[in-house]
Amino acid sequence: MEGMASTLLSGETYLLIPILLLLPFLFLIFKHIRKPFPSRFPPLPPGPYPWPIIGNLLHMGKKPHVALAQLGQAHGPLISLRLGTQLLIVGSSPAAATEILKIHDRLLCGRHVPHVSYAKSLDHNHLSLGWTFECNERWKFLRTLCRTELFAPKIIDAQTNPREKKVKEMVGFLCSKEGEVVRVREVVFATIFNFLGNIFVSEDFITFDGGEKDGSMSGLLRRIIELWTTPNISDLYPILGGFDLQGLNKKAMECFRRICATCQVMNYTIPKDSQVIVNVWAMGRDPAIWEDPLTFKPERFLNSDLDFKGNDFEFVPFGGGRRICPGLPMAVRQIHLTLASLIHKFEWSLPHNMQPNQLDMNEKFGLTLQKEHPLLLIPKLRM
Ligand code: HEM
């Protein structure tokens, strides 16, 4: 009997221990959640009903950009969701983007920084431009440095030699691979990454076939990108951040904008500390904005005044408002030269006589979207 009782007791104890351990967390989460969508006037933007504790996490799936675009079609151009306890607001029309990136930019320019991105030392966090929470004096100083010292027109001009040198090396590498299958993404990535490496620390980081010249640097970068795009429990339940449940020890920093004070967008309430994003992907595929949006027609821009520098809110690849990409002038020069060289110097064909319409164009979610299956092409030098 005694033996049975102690077995039962130990069985119960096994169950009790995790329950007792979970209780404080559940208490904190319930305390923080209050009502899923509290009644407000004006109301929160519409959205799918959130489940207790997890909110709308299950709605996101593996391709959150697609899920959010579909929710936008169902509920409207400005929607709200809960990811854990975190309120997420998503704009997916030019009107919503204009309000977020222009009209309310002063209040919405804060950025919600993922817990994984904090540096251990506060001093280091202050050195990071992209991961500064709010547009404070320090952020202004770093932006000024970018404008005057890193990306000013005369500096970009002065970088012509290293830029051309890296692109010539790329062309040389592709010539050596004539008739062979190459992974275009890796070649272009190495060209741009090494150009930045040469500009900032005078060295190449990576080889054209994906090998690492300086293992620590490119390895570190890949690891950081991986961490940024992996959901972190303390981003969904900020209240748990202090427990460091994933053992991140606040190593590193949010691609979302964060609200500093409650405001109104499109006649809806956007509460303080919401995360606010613009779904640029959804706008890029909206037939109300683009004729035949899914067809590759670069000529659609030929006789158009549409600008990509943050003034036309249906097309904001570099973002807009105060936090628009400061690297835009450098990126534009680099992309034009790289792409023009690839097209001008080579004829390209697909392996195994594949036709372009047979290509798998599925994308993979990440810090930036990529093709799920990298593009493989065969270069042939043009005569
Ligand atoms: C095709 C190339 C690039 C694209 C499409 C791009 C796009 C973007 C976007 C969408 C943002 C966020 C804007 C927002 O929050 O509204 C951003 C921010 C940023 N980008 Fe870029 N970018 C590119 C290249 C570069 C380069 C070459 C650099 C620097 C060498 C750079 C440095 C930054 C920094 C530091 C920020 C954060 C700015 C801030 O928070 O104030 N980007 N970029």
Automatic annotation (TrEMBL):
An MF annotation (GO) of this entry: heme binding
Name of one Pfam family that matches: p450
Keyword presence, Metal-binding: yes
Cofactor: heme
Positions contributing to heme binding: 325
Record keyword Iron present: yes
Similarity remark: Belongs to the cytochrome P450 family.
Naturally occurring in which organism (per UniProt): Tetracentron sinense
SUPFAM superfamilies reported in the protein's UniProt record: Cytochrome P450
The organism's place on the tree of life at top rank: Eukaryota
Name of the molecule in the record: Cytochrome P450
Keywords in alphabetical order: Heme, Iron, Membrane, Metal-binding, Monooxygenase, Oxidoreductase, Transmembrane, Transmembrane helix
InterPro entries associated with the record: Cyt_P450, Cyt_P450_CS, Cyt_P450_E_grp-IV, Cyt_P450_sf
TM region(s), chain numbering: 13-30
